[in-house]
C-alpha cells in the first residue's frame, strides 16, 4: 500500500464550503434578483445542530467474531482448496515477520539511497530493523512488526503510539533481492500526509481492512487513537465465504448424514463480484463492516470516471484505482462474466495461461462472446497458434510469457494494458478497453499500441489500426470517451451527448460517469430533467451519483421537486443512495432518523483523516454551527499542511466568518503549494479585492486567466476589477474572453452592458443587455436594464 502525494478529497469533501465561497467573497455584488445559473447555495441553514443525533451502531464485536472459525479449521475437510489458498497472495496478505521468509531481506545489512535520503536495514536478534528518517526528521531505527503483501514487493509495518501501525516506504523486492523506495525519487518529508509516518500511510485506515479478515478499525475520535481488531490476520477463507463456525459445528454433528448443510451460504454472481470488489476497488468506506453476501453499495461509495485524473475518459486507470470499477465499466461485466470465470477462487491465479483463458469463450463456444481468431485479429504473432489461426497442441506447463519473443498477440496486452504502481507492481487494467490512437491524438488518452511501440509516433499507430480495422474503429466507445474528455474541459458541446448517455447508455457505470461529468451544466433544463430521472434509475451507482450532483438545484426553481425526490431517496433500499441524499439534505435532516445516525457514523469512522475532518466541518457548516466547523477545518490543515485543497477550503470558512486576513494567508499557501492551479489564484484574487487590495487582486485574477483561459468566472471578475481601476478597454476585453469561455452565463453580458452604458456606448450596451435577457428571460434586473437602455 502506498499513498499518493496529491490526492483528490474523499466523498462529499468541500461541497458546502465550495458552494459558500461565491457568496463570501464574490466581486460582483448581487442585485436584488439574479438569473438562475449553476451554483450552490450560500444561504444560512434554518437551524443549528444543538444536540447529538441518534448514532448508527455496529453489531457487538465479540458476537461477530465468535462466528469465525479461522482458516486452519477448513484444512481437515477441504485440504486441496486449503493448500491452494495457503500459497496464495491472499494468505500472505499480512503476516508476522518470519525468520524463514524474511531474514534474507535484512541479512547481510545494507543501505540504499532515495532522493536526498538514505535508509538502511539489518537483522537484529529475532527481527528486522529499518533505519529511516522518521517523525524527528532525523534517521531513526524502527523494529519491524509485520509484513504486508508478498510478491512482487513486501512492505513492513512498525508500531506507533496510539494503537497505530505505519507502513514503511522502504520496501523489498524478493525477486531481485533488492530494497527500494515505494515513492521512487519523490523524496517525501516528515509532516507530509503521504510520508510513511503520516496518516496517508497509516495501516489501521489505509491497509488493514483489505489485508485481513472482518476487520474493525475502532478509531476513538476523542483521543485520536485506535483499538483495531480482526477475526483473522490475512485474507482467510472466511473473508470470502463468511463466518463458518456454525458450518463447523453442523458438520461435527451431522458429518456424513447426507443432509444438506443449511449453514453454508451460496452466493450469487453479484455477491461474488461484490466481495471481490470490497478489496479490489478504490472507494470510500461508509460503515467499516462489510462482509461477504452484503451489497457493495450498502457499504461503499465507489470512485469512477469523473472530472478528475483518477481515470482516463475512456475508462483506463490513471491513478491507483484497482480493478472493481474498471470491471464494472467493461463489456465483460455486461456479458455476465465474473471474477471467478477467469480466476481460481483459492489460488487467485488465472485458470489458464495467456490466450487460452480468453479463448474459452471467444472460440465460438459461448453465445454472448464474439468469435475471435487470435492471429488475424491481433495482426501479431500469437504463441501457440499457426499463421492460419489453428491452435497448436502442446504442454501448457512450458508456457511462460517472459520467454516469448513477441507478446503483441496476447489478448491482455492490447485489452488489459499494464500500469506500474509502487515502482515494482505491474497491474492489468480490467476495463477491457479497445486501443484507439485517435483518442491519444485528440485527448492524450494512452493506447496499447504506443505503450508497447514507444519508438513509434501516434500517427504511425493510428494509420496501422485504421488500415486494419477501417470504420470499425469509429465505435460508440470512442464517441463516449470523446464526450467525457470534452466535458473535462467544460466544452458545451459535451452537454447534450452526456444527457443522452444518462438516459440511453445501457451500462449503469457509464450512465453514472455521465452524471459525474455534467457538473458544469447543472441548471440547464435538459440536464435537470435527466438528473431527476436518474434518481429512480435501476442501478444504485447511478442513483447515488445523481443524488450528489443535484445539490445545486436546491436553491433554484427546481428546488422543491429535487427536495421531494431526495426525501424519497432517504428510503432507498441501498445505503449509499440513502447517505448521499441525507448529505445533500443535511440542513433539514431530522436528527432522530436512521439516515442521520448512519451519516454521523460514517463521519466518525473517517475522522482520523484530514478529509474526514473536512467533512465534519462541512456537516457543521451546513447545520449552522460555524464555530465547530472551523475547528474541524483547522484540524484538517494541521494534519496535512501540505495540501492545497484543504487550505483552500479552510480559507473559504475563514472568509465566511469575516476572518479575511487569515483567509488570504491560507489561499496564498494554497497557491504556493499548487502554483499551476488556476482556481487558487482566482479565489485569492477575490479575497484580496474584499480586503481592498485592488492591485494584487488584479494580478491574481490575471494569473488565473493565464493558467486557465477557459476559467470564465476568473475572467468575469477580472473584467469588473479592471473596470474599477479605470482600465475600461482592458475590462471589456477580459469580459469578452470570459463570455467566449462560458457563453451561457448571463451575468457576463449583463456586466458588459452596465460598463458600456456608463461609458456612453449605448448601442453596444443594448446588444449586451439583450444577450443577458436571452440567456435568463426571468432575470428582473436584466429586463429592467433593457427597458432603461431602450428609453435612452
- Which stretches of 5+ consecutive residues score pLDDT under 50? 4-50, 398-405
**Spatial strand sequence of the major β-sheet:** 1-6-7-8
Cα-atom Rg, whole angstroms?
29 Å
**What does the overall shape look like?**
globular
Strand content: 5-15%
Mean pLDDT: 90
Estimated helix fraction: 40-55%
Category by helix and strand content: alpha+beta
Which assembly state applies to the chains in this document? single chain
Instruction: Describe the main β-sheet briefly.
Output: 4 strands, antiparallel
- Number of helices in the DSSP assignment: 37
Per DSSP E runs of 2 or more residues, the count of β-strands stands at 18
Separation, N- and C-terminal Cα atoms:
69 Å
Concise synopsis of the structure shown:
By secondary structure, this protein is α+β, with helices and mostly antiparallel strands. Helix content is 44%, strand content 10%.
Can you tell me about this structure?
- The chain is 44% helix and 10% strand.
- By secondary structure, it is an alpha+beta fold.
- Helix 27 packs parallel to helix 29, helix 31 packs parallel to helix 33 and helix 34 runs antiparallel to helix 35.
- The relative contact order is 0.10.
Amino acid at each position: 500500500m502506498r499513498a499518493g502525494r496529491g490526492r483528490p478529497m474523499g466523498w462529499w469533501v468541500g461541497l458546502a464550503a465550495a458552494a459558500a465561497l461565491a457568496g463570501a467573497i464574490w466581486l460582483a455584488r448581487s442585485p436584488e434578483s439574479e438569473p438562475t445559473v449553476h451554483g450552490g447555495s450560500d444561504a444560512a441553514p434554518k437551524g443549528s445542530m444543538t444536540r447529538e443525533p441518534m448514532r448508527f451502531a455496529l453489531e457487538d464485536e465479540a458476537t461477530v467474531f465468535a462466528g469465525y472459525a479461522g482458516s486452519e479449521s477448513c484444512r481437515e475437510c477441504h485440504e486441496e482448496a486449503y493448500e491452494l489458498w495457503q500459497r496464495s497472495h491472499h494468505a500472505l496478505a499480512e503476516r508476522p515477520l518470519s525468520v524463514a521468509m524474511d531474514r534474507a531481506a535484512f541479512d547481510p545489512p545494507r543501505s540504499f539511497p532515495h532522493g536526498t535520503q538514505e535508509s538502511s536495514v539489518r537483522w537484529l536478534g529475532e527481527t528486522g530493523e529499518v533505519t529511516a528518517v522518521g517523525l524527528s526528521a532525523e534517521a531513526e531505527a524502527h523494529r519491524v512488526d509485520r509484513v504486508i503483501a508478498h510478491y512482487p514487493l513486501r512492505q513492513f509495518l512498525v508500531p506507533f503510539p496510539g494503537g497505530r501501525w505505519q507502513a514503511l516506504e522502504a520496501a523489498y523486492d524478493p525477486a531481485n533481492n533488492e530494497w527500494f523506495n515505494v515513492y521512487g525519487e519523490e523524496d517525501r518529508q516528515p509532516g507530509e500526509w503521504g510520508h510513511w509516518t503520516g496518516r496517508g500511510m497509516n495501516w489501521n485506515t489505509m491497509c488493514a481492512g483489505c489485508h485481513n479478515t472482518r476487520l474493525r478499525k475502532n478509531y476513538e475520535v476523542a483521543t485520536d487513537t485506535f483499538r483495531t481488531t480482526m477475526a483473522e490476520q490475512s485474507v482467510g477463507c472466511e473473508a470470502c465465504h463468511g463466518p463458518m463456525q456454525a458450518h463447523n459445528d453442523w458438520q461435527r454433528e451431522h458429518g456424513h448424514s447426507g443432509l444438506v448443510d443449511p449453514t453454508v451460504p451460496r452466493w450469487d454472481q453479484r455477491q461474488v463480484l461484490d466481495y471481490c470488489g470490497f478489496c479490489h476497488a478504490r472507494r470510500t468506506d461508509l460503515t467499516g463492516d462489510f462482509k461477504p453476501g452484503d451489497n457493495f453499495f450498502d457499504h461503499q461509495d465507489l470512485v469512477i470516471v469523473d472530472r478528475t485524473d483518477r481515470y482516463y475518459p475512456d475508462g483506463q486507470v490513471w491513478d491507483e484505482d484497482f480493478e472493481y470499477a474498471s470491471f464494472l465499466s467493461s463489456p465483460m461485466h455486461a456479458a455476465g462474466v465474473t471474477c471467478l470465470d477467469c480466476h481460481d477462487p483459492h489460488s487467485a491465479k488465472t485458470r489458464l495461461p495467456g490466450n487460452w483463458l480468453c479463448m474459452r469463450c471467444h472460440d465460438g463456444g459461448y453465445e454472448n462472446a464474439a468469435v475471435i481468431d487470435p492471429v488475424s485479429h491481433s495482426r501479431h504473432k500469437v504463441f501457440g497458434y499457426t499463421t492460419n489461426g489453428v491452435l497448436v497442441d502442446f504442454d501448457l506447463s512450458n508456457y511462460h510469457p517472459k520467454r516469448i519473443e513477441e507478446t503483441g498477440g496476447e489478448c491482455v496486452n492490447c485489452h488489459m494494458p499494464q500500469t506500474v504502481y509502487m515502482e515494482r507492481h505491474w497491474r492489468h487494467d480490467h476495463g477491457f478497453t479497445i486501443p484507439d490512437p485517435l483518442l491519444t491524438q485528440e485527448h492524450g488518452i494512452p493506447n496499447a499500441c504506443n505503450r508497447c511501440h514507444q519508438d513509434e509516433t501516434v500517427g504511425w499507430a493510428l494509420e496501422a489500426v485504421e488500415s486494419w480495422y477501417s470504420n470499425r474503429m469509429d465505435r460508440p466507445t470512442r464517441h463516449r470517451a470523446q464526450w467525457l474528455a470534452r466535458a473535462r474541459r467544460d466544452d458545451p458541446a459535451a452537454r447534450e451527448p452526456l444527457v443522452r448517455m444518462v438516459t440511453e447508455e445501457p451500462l449503469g457505470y457509464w450512465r453514472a460517469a455521465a452524471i459525474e461529468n455534467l457538473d458544469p451544466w447543472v441548471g440547464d433544463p435538459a440536464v435537470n430533467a435527466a438528473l431527476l430521472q436518474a434518481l429512480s434509475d435501476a442501478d444504485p451507482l447511478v442513483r447515488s451519483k445523481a443524488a450528489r450532483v443535484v445539490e445545486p438545484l436546491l436553491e433554484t426553481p427546481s428546488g422543491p421537486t429535487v427536495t421531494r425526490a431526495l426525501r424519497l431517496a432517504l428510503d432507498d433500499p441501498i445505503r449509499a443512495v440513502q447517505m448521499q441524499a441525507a448529505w445533500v439534505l443535511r440542513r433539514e435532516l431530522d436528527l432522530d432518523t436512521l439516515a442521520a445516525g448512519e451519516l454521523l457514523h460514517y463521519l466518525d469512522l473517517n475522522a482520523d483523516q484530514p478529509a474526514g475532518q473536512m467533512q465534519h466541518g462541512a456537516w457543521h457548516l451546513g447545520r449552522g454551527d460555524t464555530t465547530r466547523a472551523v475547528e474541524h477545518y483547522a484540524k484538517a490543515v494541521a494534519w496535512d499542511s501540505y495540501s492545497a485543497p484543504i487550505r483552500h477550503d479552510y480559507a473559504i470558512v475563514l472568509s465566511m466568518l469575516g476572518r479575511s486576513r487569515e483567509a488570504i494567508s491560507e489561499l496564498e499557501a494554497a497557491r504556493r503549494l499548487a502554483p499551476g492551479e488556476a482556481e487558487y489564484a482566482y479565489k485569492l484574487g477575490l479575497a484580496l479585492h474584499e480586503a481592498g487590495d485592488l492591485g494584487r487582486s488584479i494580478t491574481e485574477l490575471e494569473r488565473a486567466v493565464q493558467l486557465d483561459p477557459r476559467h470564465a468566472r476568473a475572467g468575469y471578475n477580472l473584467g469588473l476589477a479592471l473596470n474599477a481601476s479605470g482600465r475600461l478597454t482592458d475590462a471589456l476585453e477580459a469580459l469578452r474572453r470570459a463570455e467566449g469561455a462560458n457563453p451561457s452565463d448571463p451575468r457576463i453580458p449583463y456586466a458588459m452592458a452596465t460598463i458600456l452604458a456608463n461609458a456612453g456606448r449605448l448601442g453596444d450596451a443594448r446588444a449586451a443587455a439583450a444577450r443577458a435577457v436571452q440567456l435568463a428571460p426571468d432575470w428582473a434586473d436584466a429586463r429592467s436594464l433593457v427597458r432603461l437602455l431602450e428609453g435612452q
